[in-house]
Design brief:
The complex is a heterodimer of chains A (145) and B (224).
Chain A (H helix, E strand, L loop, with lengths): L4 E17 L4 H8 L14 E5 L9 E8 L10 E17 L4 H14 L3 E2 L3 E8 L2 E11 L2
Antiparallel strand pairs in A: 1-3, 1-4, 2-3, 2-6, 4-7, 5-7, 6-7
Chain B lengths: L4 E18 L4 H13 L9 E4 L9 E8 L12 E18 L3 H18 L1 E3 L3 E8 L2 E12 L2 H4 L13 H7 L8 H10 L11 H19 L1
Antiparallel strand pairs in B: 1-3, 1-4, 2-3, 2-6, 4-7, 5-7, 6-7
């Protein structure tokens, strides 16, 4: 895939929830994360981000971190506050959310392995809605060789 | 009549956000100073926007989040109090655009947006957002508010209003108010001690508790 690039990735001021779930639940988790209302004095300021373990991706259940960027550092009863996530150097690829995440991840890890690059067993997936359709920005944090 | 458009989104890649305490008289100057501070180390690439975090009807003490898109995917250095994020996104906004509007026209259109919420039984998902834009000697002002249809299931996601929640240090710092969310006698104490605190914001409990005590005191004085 031609559009794989090395970038920096950083998100600040987020609400966080961790759970064990299947990939088939991602769409409904995403939908519920979009439904925050401005009742407690904060609002959503960025795309919902999933943090997943790459080697668990093929499993029926996997550990999933959900991050929701918000305007103020105010935790809720269900969501904890996290100041920052991201990495100085990550491999990035944008793919359609409903098809392409698995193939995209495979292309990214193959590319890294062929170059002999070290990378974390972690992927951040930022889900951006453009004209009604979700796109997944995949970020694999790179480690020093 | 200016059309109110529904279903608008705002997307930026790489933004710096700064919090600004100002008033209507110094708004433009203070925003320009903030932009200059960011531009000293980063490259500003698109129109900034600001979110009025305080009560939009109060123009003498305004708290704004100013969101500035930059070219760098990693900021060189950020001034104190600024923060960076790789993605900024506001979805499902309603909005309108004014051309060369004065403050009274702006105010009128803000009230129209608010009335739109009541008419359609919508629930706000953001405060009021302003995005100024200069093009061919014309000054455009875009106004936005996030909107969602009222749903019972949505309300379940946040703590109920009557639930007492401990205030965090971050909340107290963010609101510039050591007594934020105080209740009962503590709210009355906060009311007195914050008399000369002109920054930040207060919770509703800090308004209603002193009012209740004042009413009770007046009633007691009338009886005796």
């Amino acid at each position: 895939m031609d559009n794989i690039e090395e970038v920096s990735f950083e998100m600040t001021q987020l609400l966080h929830r961790q759970l064990v779930t299947g990939a088939d639940q991602f769409a409904s988790l995403l939908q519920s994360s979009e439904e925050l209302v401005y009742e407690e004095g904060f609002y959503k300021t960025g795309p919902t981000i999933f943090g997943l373990t790459i080697t668990e991706m093929a499993s029926s259940k996997q550990h999933c971190d959900i991050y929701i960027p918000v305007s103020a550092p105010i935790p809720t009863a269900e969501l904890a506050y996290v100041d920052q996530i991201g990495c100085d150097s990550a491999l990035h690829l944008r793919v359609p959310f409903n098809k392409g995440i698995e193939a995209g991840l495979q292309a990214m890890t193959q590319s890294l392995q062929s170059q002999g690059r070290h990378y974390a067993d972690r992927v951040y997936i930022a889900l951006t809605r453009v004209y009604g359709e979700y796109w997944a920005d995949l970020f694999i944090p790179l480690e020093e060789n | 009549m200016i059309d109110i458009i529904e279903g608008l989104d705002i997307h930026y890649r790489n933004v710096v956000t700064g919090l600004l305490l100002t008033d209507a008289a110094h708004l433009d100057e203070d925003i320009q100073n903030l932009l200059d501070e960011i531009a000293a180390e980063q490259t500003i690439v698109d129109d900034y926007l600001y979110v009025i975090e305080s009560d939009f009807r109060r123009t003498d003490a305004m708290t704004l989040s100013v969101v500035v898109p930059i070219a760098e995917d990693k900021p060189v250095t950020l001034p104190q109090g600024f923060r960076f994020q790789s993605y900024y996104q506001l979805l499902d906004l309603i909005g309108l655009r004014l051309v060369d509007a004065d403050s009274s026209q702006l105010e009128e259109q803000v009230m129209r947006l608010m009335a739109h919420f009541a008419d359609r039984d919508l629930e706000p998902t953001t405060p009021l957002i302003m995005r100024p834009h200069q093009l061919h000697d014309h000054h455009y002002s875009e106004l936005y508010v996030g909107q969602a249809e009222r749903q019972v299931s949505v309300r379940k996601k946040v703590p109920k209003k009557h639930e007492k929640r401990e205030t965090t240090a971050e909340e107290r710092a963010f609101t510039h108010n050591h007594y934020y969310r105080a209740t009962g006698f503590a709210a009355v104490g906060a009311w007195i001690k914050n008399s000369f605190n002109y920054a930040g914001s207060s919770s509703r409990s800090e308004y209603w508790w002193p009012l209740l005590f004042t009413l009770l005191y007046k009633t007691w004085k009338n009886v005796h």
